[in-house]
Design goal:
Helix content: 55-70%
Distance between the termini: 47 Å
Strand order of the largest sheet: 3-1-4
Order of helices and strands: HHHHHHEEHEEEHHEHHHHH
Structural class: mainly alpha
Strand content: 5-15%
Shape: globular
Number of helices: 14
Oligomer: single chain
Number of domains: 3
Radius of gyration: 26 Å
Number of strands: 6
């Protein structure tokens, strides 16, 4: 098997493992936050009873002092909880980074048919990556700092509004914690949980790519470049769609050889994660044609939403019969919907096929769902490619910006 194929297959298989690590660490973070959320709700109920029992105008000076005291206590509790979260995540990220470095060395050593001594990434370097390497513009510590600031701002604002508007304790608690009907996703605390989960997932991907980059840099000239590899599905963002299949140098002092025929990445040293919750990965390229397969999913929904839809579809098809089915029978009906979807929407394409080429083969409805109707029409004309829908920073261009850059294409497409 050609080395590039072997490296790419191993990397993509490993990416599944990385996502599992990210999910496990995110779940651990969520467990800690949920416990902290319960503490806040309990403190809120207890202190609001004291505050509201005092009676009178909530804007009275004594009640204002009581409210300030409550907000100070909550601010202190949230600060403690979120710093504990960061303190727990960082060492796990370091351990993960060490494993990533060892994994990449094994892949390259196994795949390249010449003997090369590849030095390990020192533990101190991995620790430095976790503490100082920016991903999506901020270091891990800065992301957690912004999380603490946003959490306190949202939380204290809602408590203050509820008290000053004279709302009841249950109403104020619902503002903060959400409702059972909304699966507790409609309170301000849920925003912190979502943000923390995104930070952990993005951090795992960023650290993986950064540590593996250190391996490639130490590997010598055998690694000619790094190829951006996005996920082939409807949830992939414009920046990752546009960068898929593009190659970059390993570092500034190691330019790409002229023999590398792949399209060049812009900016030339861009690395995943390109955005929060980015799933893209860089793959070492050693100058041979890529063969083999890469999987795709023709859908924009994430797994949780798909599963909810499968259940709804099975229930709708069963009609009144649904209420009489056992749970086992219901699961079987849901499994049938899932199997039908998998048959229609999951497949594979040659490894050399990038997102642009793959998307051109998909149904018009899916193209429009991913790009929007007007951009889908322009895309189908074949004169604008996915990398032209974004600027050099990876930001998606508006239709007006595209028209200014490609007026003739708009005229031909009749848009």
């Amino acid at each position: 098997m050609p080395a590039n194929d072997d490296i790419r297959d191993a990397t993509l298989r490993h990416q599944v493992h990385i996502r599992r690590v990210a999910k496990r660490q995110a779940n651990q973070a969520l467990e800690l936050l949920e416990a902290a959320d319960r503490d806040v709700v309990r403190l809120l109920r207890e202190e609001l009873k004291k505050l509201l029992r005092a009676g009178g105008d909530p804007r009275d000076s004594r009640n204002v002092r009581r409210l300030k005291g409550l907000l100070t206590e909550i601010r202190r509790e949230r600060e403690r909880a979120l710093r504990a979260l960061e303190k727990g995540v960082s060492p796990e990220m370091v351990d993960f980074g060490k494993i990533e470095g060892e994994f990449e060395i094994k892949v390259l050593d196994r795949s390249i048919p010449i003997a090369i001594d590849i030095p390990k990434v020192p533990p101190g370097v991995v620790e430095g990556i976790v503490s100082t390497q920016p991903f999506n513009g901020r270091t891990l510590g800065e992301w957690f700092g912004s999380l603490r600031e946003a959490d306190q701002r949202r939380l204290l604002e809602q408590i203050r509004i509820g008290v000053l508007e004279g709302q009841s304790i249950p109403d104020i608690v619902r503002r903060v914690a959400g409702t059972r009907r909304g699966q507790f996703r409609d309170g301000v605390l849920s925003a912190t949980r979502r943000q923390a989960e995104a930070i952990v997932r993005t951090g795992v991907n960023g650290i993986s790519n950064a540590v593996r980059n250190r391996v490639w840099d130490r590997f010598g000239d055998a690694v000619e470049g790094l190829v951006w590899n996005a996920t082939l599905d409807g949830r992939t963002t414009p920046v990752c769609r546009g960068r898929d299949g593009h190659v970059r140098p390993v570092s500034l002092d190691r330019p790409l050889p002229p023999t590398v025929s792949l399209p060049r990445l812009k900016p030339p040293l861009a690395s995943p994660p390109a955005h929060v919750s980015c799933r893209s990965v860089l793959v070492a390229y050693i100058g041979e044609d890529l063969i083999g397969d890469r999987p795709f999913v023709r859908d924009k929904r994430n797994r949780r939403v798909r599963e909810m839809d499968f259940r709804a579809q099975a229930r709708d098809k069963a009609g009144a019969e649904w209420s009489n089915l056992t749970e086992k029978e219901r699961r079987a009906r849901i499994a049938d919907e899932r199997a039908k979807w998998q048959k229609e929407n999951i497949g594979s394409v040659p490894a050399s096929e990038d997102y642009d080429t793959w998307l051109r083969k998909q149904p018009v409805g899916f193209q429009d769902d991913v790009l929007g109707k007007t951009k889908g029409k322009l895309f189908r004309k074949g004169e604008i490619h996915l990398d032209q829908f974004i600027d050099i920073n990876g930001d998606e261009l508006t239709l007006d910006e595209l028209r200014g850059l490609h007026p003739g294409v708009f005229d031909k497409a009749g848009v």
